[in-house]
């Protein structure tokens, strides 16, 4: 007979909340230097190109936007599925099972998500950059999915969300060995870049929108980890008596994903739905047995 601990390790081999907690405790404020330098470099570049004005900001990216949009839209099904991972409901649904096995990740995710929401909403209102569909002729580029033509292009909300969540995962599951760390870091960054540039592929954003959005998302993820480490605001997440809150949240996500499937019958939504069903079952099972 396998013991309970052996069974758990067999089923969930590399997810240990204590390891995630230790990784977050190693967090250093120096991690903010690189993304802040990148944002500074982008601002300097825009200033030198006289592109701090909205119309110039759009014009200097016009040909790059057309090139990327044309190239990426050739893989329309893949791009349209991947771009959904910038939707917080979809991403959190896929990660819902971590509530049971690595609640420290969810603690950081809550703080990071709140920070990213503040950044996204405030910056979009400040910059009011028109979307590509509001500027360019619709016949000159490819639009996949819903046509977005508002004045809220900068920064890309999907890019902020994607990098916020990936950053929390990046540092939460950081390996111990240096070579593994480098490989893990490269894989997460590449995945993040693929996800954010799908926003250009579907015709929703300019290239700098997603680069800036991704950088802000990275900072949001770091801030989420930092806030959680310093103030321990969400330690109740691992307490089973509060599971009904997450059962309700997962149920809302379930309804939202069903609605998305009815509107856009995409494979990624079925994956998210499956993850939610498993998480709901396990969470309810653990709560009832507490």
From TrEMBL:
It is a multi-pass membrane protein. CDD domains: PAP2_like (cd01610). The chain crosses the membrane at residues 29-47, 108-127, 156-175, 182-202, 208-227, 242-261, 267-288. The keyword tRNA-binding does not apply. Keywords: Cell membrane, Hydrolase, Membrane, Transmembrane, Transmembrane helix. It comes from the Bacteria. SMART domains: acidPPc. It is found in: Cell membrane. Residues 108-225 form the Phosphatidic acid phosphatase type 2/haloperoxidase domain. This is Phosphatase PAP2 family protein.
